[in-house]
Q: What sequence folds into this?
């Protein structure tokens, strides 16, 4: 498998694991040293430091998912990601950078599917023991006005 | 062409043929022995056997499309699939398995495009005479509450 | 990089550059001799020659973007493309043809993201100085009833 293919597969896995509510497996896609942040397009364009969600290491990601599990005994919605093909920026010092557009739909308990969020992933990827892993994942949502509380990752 | 590329192309073709209303050509994407079923996520998660649509061989698929053609003299909507990159499970005994998220939009006669269904394909693929063909295609819709009658395949 | 990969990357770039409002860089994806047109599915199916937008060379594309920049001092919306994997028709006399489904979402100043248009790209691609470039790009929108004025390219 080429790095290109491994990165394509990593992004497919990223979306499907969230959609299956396998959030612990989703965390396993991250590198040992990693970060995950959600920011809005407005803030990025205006150079504002504000973030909607920030985890600067794997323990913070685990904590977040574990709190989420405790608070949400039942799933109130299901997610569905459809992610576009990546823009490949190439490799530098062992880090690959890609960007990819996403559309995220949610289906509620009444069975209605709706557009929830669109935006872009800006991601660096590192290979650990031969596996592509997320090093720094920035989710740039096209709007911070997200219709419900930001509970699960995007 | 690698099996990976042939499978990517098969899934692109799958969506575009439905969207072009070339349903007879769409059936030709299936293997000689094949099945096609539509189930809901709720049913899969609760282990219920209920299906929304089931064809266990190619003749059933042909029958279904032919009835559809007789009933619908005019097209009342057009479809548009946008399908995510596949998760590849590899090959076992000549069968390749993949999963892929889809978003399906419909445009009605008044020219309004709407989200119709989101969900996931879970598919086994076999190579016949060098061509990738669908062996067992399960469409897992995120909700069974689909706004109109299930007329065309998803 | 194979032609297949170069074409995949070109289409990813196509969507992301529009979404970043980098329309001048988007024009640079076109070949020296090129065309860009937006037509509706109804018109294509009925063999009607009507087009929603037509640029038959690069200067026309540049003019259009430049007028757009003068009229729109501020961005009134942001775009988000999610494009499906291409159907590859192969190469003929140096021209590669592909088709790909797209979904296009817009986010307005109030922060609401909505489905804006779905449809299909039908594109010929030529390699110039080793780079994949758009020769003739036809955007077939599933409906001409697009909710706002057609300002930016699709």
A:
């Amino acid at each position: 498998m080429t790095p290109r293919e491994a990165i394509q597969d990593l992004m497919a896995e990223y979306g499907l694991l969230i959609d299956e509510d396998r959030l612990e497996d989703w965390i396993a896609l991250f590198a040992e040293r990693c970060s995950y942040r959600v920011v809005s397009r407005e803030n990025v364009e205006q150079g504002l430091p504000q973030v909607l969600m920030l985890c600067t290491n794997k323990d913070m990601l685990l904590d977040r998912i574990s709190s989420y599990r405790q608070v949400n005994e039942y799933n109130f919605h299901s997610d569905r990601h459809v992610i576009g093909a990546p823009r490949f920026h190439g490799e530098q010092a062992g880090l690959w950078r890609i960007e990819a557009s996403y559309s995220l739909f949610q289906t509620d308990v009444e069975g209605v599917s709706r557009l929830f969020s669109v935006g872009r992933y800006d991601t660096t990827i590192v290979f650990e023991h031969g596996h592509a892993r997320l090093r720094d994942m920035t989710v740039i949502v096209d709007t911070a006005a997200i219709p419900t509380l930001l509970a699960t990752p995007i």
Q: What stands out?
A: The first strand of chain A starts at residue 30 and ends at 40. The domain at 3-141 of chain A is CATH 3.10.450.50 (Nuclear Transport Factor 2; Chain: A,). Residues 3-19 of chain A form the longest helix (17 residues).
